[in-house]
Amino acid sequence: MFTGSDNKVAIVAGAQTPFKAAWADRQHVDLIGDVINGALKGTGLRIQDVDFVIDSGSDILDGRSISNCGFLGAMGAHQKEESRVEEDGLWAALYGATKIGSGSAEVGLLLAYSKPSEGSVPAFYWSQCEPFYQRPVGFGQAAAGGLQAQSYLARHSLSDEIFADVVAHDWANAARNPAVDVEAAPSADEIRSSDVVAAPLRELEMARQVDGAVAMVITSERVAERICPDPVWITGIGTAMDQHAFSMRERDSLPACRAAAEAAYKRAGIDDPTTLSLAEVSASSAATELMVIEALGLADPGTAAQVYGGDGPAINPSGGALPADPIMATGLARLHEAALQLTDRVDHGPDGATSAVVHGAGGVGMQNHCVFTLEV
Amino acid sequence: MDTKAAAKKMEMRGKGLGSSVTENPVFPGRIELPYTLTTGRAAATFLAELANHKIVGSRCPRCDGIFVPAQDFCAACGTSLDEFVEVPASGKLSGYTETADGLIGLVRLDGATNDFPHKLLDTQLGELKLGARVEASWAAEAEGSILDIEGFALGGDEGGEVKPLEPGAEPVLEQKYEMRLDYAHSYGPYYGMLFDGLATSRRIQGTRCPSCERVLVPPREYCDVCYVRSGEWVDVADTGTIKAFSIIHLEFVGQTREPPYVYAEIVLDGSATRLIHTVAGIDVEDAKERLQIGTKVRAVWKGGDPIGSLEDIEYFEPVFED
Amino acid sequence: MRDVAIVGTGQTVHARRRTDVSQAGLVREAVDEALADAELTFDDIDSVVVASGPALFGAVNQPEKWLVDGLGGRMKPVVRITSGGGTGLAGALAAMNQVSSGFAERTLVVAYDKLSEGALQYQISTLYDPFWGREFAVGIMGFASAYWRARIETLGHTEEAAAMVGVKNHKNAFLNPYAHVRKEITVDDVLESRPLAWPIKLLDVPPISDGACAVVLASDDAAPKTTAKPAWIRGMSYYGEADNAPDRFMLQSVPLQLAAQRVYKKAGITNPRRQFDVAELQEPYTCFELSYYEGLGLCPTGEAADLIASGATEMDGDIPCNPSGGCMGANPIGATALIRLAEAALQVTDKAGGRQVPNARTALVQAGGGWANLRGVAVVSADRN
Hints:
The structure holds three protein chains of three kinds.
Chain A (H helix, E strand, L loop, with lengths): L8 E8 L11 H13 L11 E5 L2 H4 L4 H5 L8 E5 L4 H13 L5 E8 L6 H6 L14 H16 L4 H16 L11 H5 L3 E3 L2 E2 L9 E9 H7 L4 E10 L13 H14 L9 E3 L5 H10 L18 E2 L14 H13 L12 E8 L5 E8 L1
Parallel strand pairs in A: 2-3, 2-4, 9-10, 9-11
Antiparallel strand pairs in A: 1-7, 1-8, 4-7, 5-6, 8-12, 11-12
Chain B lengths: L2 H16 L7 E13 L2 H9 L5 E6 L4 E3 L15 E5 L2 E10 L2 E8 L6 E6 L11 E6 L10 E6 L8 E2 L9 E13 L1 H14 L2 E5 L6 E2 L16 E4 L2 E10 L12 E8 L6 E5 L4 H7 L5 E6 L11 E7 L3
Chain C lengths: L3 E8 L11 H16 L8 E6 L2 H4 L5 H4 L10 E4 L5 H14 L5 E9 L5 H6 L15 H15 L3 H15 L13 H6 L2 E4 L1 E2 L8 E10 L2 H5 L4 E10 L13 H14 L4 H4 L2 E4 L4 H10 L8 H7 L15 H4 L3 H16 L13 E8 L4 E8 L4
Parallel strand pairs in C: 2-3, 2-4, 9-10
Antiparallel strand pairs in C: 1-7, 1-8, 4-7, 5-6, 8-11, 10-11
């Protein structure tokens, strides 16, 4: 997998809380404890067997500085190696995978969580903009989404009608996923008639932020063979960040996502990603989801909307990030979902799935991207 | 926390208690921090020249691009940029959207390589078209902020040219900034029980780890050490011992006690965890000599109705056994 | 597992306040110096790890997404690690794993804080649980002073002994061109300085600094191609501990001991006092350095005051500690731990100039943050394991 290393990395277990708009009756530590405990359950591993914990969360969302520092007990990280990656949880997985890949550890816990319901999602994003030029003018995640959608449609001469079908597809999948709290999946018509919140994007075409936590157990090959009948192997990882100023980036495509995917595919030896069984991707809006699908090489530019339900990889069988975006946990949730589907632990995955591409993102207008490839 | 936030907290706590069990009370938190941010040489120059109604860009010698607003580093190639240029104050609209914050446009000033975001003024979404001419609308008074350009309005002539900057203004090296973040923290079942007990009957409750049998305050679901689910609820005393203390002379933003005072980490009788509070009822200078590890203390509760917070304890006072 | 070496280091000249650069510009200065030291350009760098203190220090959330332009990081892996005061070492450890696993050949680690931008003690108080304790928190100083007083009572870590640490580190800082505090002080000056959180007094406390540090790590393949004098990282680890765990032992840092144990085993260190030629310790208050002497096994528990009094940790002692001046010379919190690592690399590659410990081949590095519950240790050496 990683160039120069023979150490394989296995995903052996995972757990998540249900994702819902607000976990008003649970604290961060309550959600964290639930998933750490849940991930270990059934593996035969005890907390004492865990070599390290790598976690992903946000000080700005949590309302505490170095919030990991106060949550170490709930994380099971007492007197263990621990580190906070203040990026989407898929980067925590990257760190954990390199730790096992380097041979310096054998059993790792990965954790990602967010409770956006307790704070301000717009503030989480505007505070990522440099404070002199972008922040004062009201530029933030919503504006970035609107501008990306406008640019994508203009570039490919498409109508904004296409977004609603993408959203309806994802929400219908989420409704079949017991881990996502969905009362009723909106129809394409309902989506098309929701309020415009970042022209041309409508409210239901933006990712819905939710509260939730995800934990996963990754191990060396040696440990996986001992404890897990059906490990999922990480075959490739790639990540890339685009420049800061949104207005200087390409807006009708996501070149950093493409760079991340190319790096992951190269490491995994994947020549044609359309032969993969499934794709679990993150996105800030319907428009960027289409751009992600294209950047991952699953559709030609401007055609992503046509590959949903097609012969290629099943896209977001879990529902993806549009119905359930637990911000810092979104990418790790995709990884967890893909692993569940590849090991046939859930009903909503494609039949006979053997390989997956997983995508996580971060930053205003999806500045940063991380891609994993998996196989069983 | 400032006094206003504390007052709000009291109010919210009261509400939480009065409400039915199904409604979840929240703990309001506010982080309000003052900053003096340094702008860096490019932004310092850009922000300063706005007073002269000049828009400053940077030329990248490696990419041959003109980047507006001026940047310290070329985002494309990382080159350190030190050549400033003046770009025309009008250009074309290369993107626009409308959000709760209003109309935001991406403006490509004439001669610039890139777009930049700003507010669009005196127009409506329906009137906008990609490629439309726009021009800067200047604020009446310059304050050294990007908002010295109030925004961009439709209009403006073509034909302006990029020219070398003749700097005239003193760079704006610093900018005052305040960041305010508001929170509505969930109590969760463990803190909920603790704070309800405090508010209704000044009870301090913890949970006992079934494995090591130690009592954890604040209560929590998992024992940090054993990582097993904690078991029974237990009341702990409002008396305890000093585990460590120091004497605070320092003054700082956000402080809730007036120095000098005794900061203490206290282990309440019946618990195995530390509580942060203050020790009073003893002369601060005497405290240096008389307080020790293991000195007994007891809580002195505030009068009136409790609010359900550590603030309900005014301070701890030492109980000397001799 | 591949061995990893430091092949270039850079620092800003640290200052109480830099008004001439933004946070991004500050970081860039250190990066330019590290790349020049390694004789590399941005094109040679596979990935970037950014480490800095809490987002609230600089009013920018996930600041690596702003800094990327000045790091030449576009289209590369860029990730930020944040872990309190020791974050610089936590970042280096993440980078080391990237290289060791083969994910990258050369990784740039940058660490910084521009502390002059905000109100530090209040910012640090936001570490505390908003429900329970934040209202009485006094940054980390209240906590640190309380347990120092406890160590005075139980371990004899006197005010005089801590003052000697301050005098030594201030003296050493004179030799370090990057340090911004250059002030000769005496034990009496420290003892008579204004109490801030007694027993912590003004001169027990490091300055508040703006500063950045950058380090280039390379694999055992790439390192010899880059420099004739790589500084091999023979072990590095970073442990955490639940702050309010039941009966948490506060007189010694258990995570520090765990990290040391692990790293010493890896590097074959059985007698730290004899095997290390030099140590760089992150002592945000003078009292911490005393505690680390014991936690790191440079002396037995309860003998730290004797160790400093013996002169063994002075520049001409048998185990010089903080020839750079440590935090007393400059303390840009997020960068501080990486500065310790960089200084150790300079020592074992004979590049430490006026603060060089003669013939230093193996150096001990210690870092930490949080409520003394995040602790890291590294061993850097001219020799490979």
